[in-house]
Amino acid sequence: MATEESLDLYHVGRSALVWQYDYPATTRDIDVLVQGEPTGMMAKALDMYGRGSVKAQEFGIYLEAVPTALPPMAGGFRKRAELYDHPWKIIRLFHLDPHDLAASKLKRFAVKDREDICELCDRGLIESDILKSTLENAFYFHMEKDGNPERDAAFANLAFVRKYLAGEINEF
C-alpha cells in the first residue's frame, strides 16, 4: 500500500499578504519556510519552480525557500497557522498567524516589511501585546542583556510598531 505524501508549505513574506488578504502589491517570489536543507518534495519543487527555473520564467514568479531561523520564527508558529482550503492533492498551504507574519518582518524591517506590517495593523489584525510576546518567543534564547544585535534591532523596530498601534505616530 502506497503512502500518500504531501508537501507542507508555510507561506511567509509579501506574497502571503497578497494571497491571504488580497493586499494590492506585487512580488517576484513566493516565500515558504523550510527547516534545514530542502529535501524530498521541497527540493523537487524548488528545482521546478525556484529562481531561474523554466516554470518561474514562464509564470513570472518563483518559489523561494526561507530558513525558519532567518526571520526568526516564534516557536509554535506551525500550530497557529491555518490550512488554506484548496483542492490540491499534494500541496498543503498554510497561512501564518498575522502576529507570526508581522514578527518575521521585524528583524529586517526594510521598506516593504514596514509597508506590510502597516497593512496588517491597519486591517486590525495585530495586537501590540501579542506581537511583543510573539517576538519574544522568536528570540527565546536571546535576552536583552545579551546584546544580540539582531534581537536588539527587532525590538527597536517593534517599539515603532507599538507606537503606531497606539496612535502615537502616523508611520514608521
Number of domains: 1
Provide the structure class: alpha/beta
Note the overall shape: globular
| Helix content class | 40-55%
Radius of gyration: 17 Å
Give the neighbour order of strands across the main sheet.
Answer: 3-2-1-5-4
Percent range for β-strand residues: 5-15%
Number of helices: 8
Q: Low-confidence parts, pLDDT < 50 over ≥5 residues?
A: none
Number of strands: 5
Order of helices and strands: EHEHHEHEEHHHH
Mean pLDDT: 93
Sheet with the most strands, sense and barrel status: 5 strands, mixed
Distance between the termini: 56 Å
Describe, in plain words, how this protein is organized in 3D.
- This protein has 172 residues and is an alpha/beta fold.
- It has one domain.
- It has helices at residues 14-21, 40-49, 54-59, 77-80, 98-103, 111-122, 128-138, 149-165; strands at 7-12, 29-34, 62-67, 82-83, 91-95.
- The termini are far apart.
- The model has no long low-confidence stretch (mean pLDDT 93).
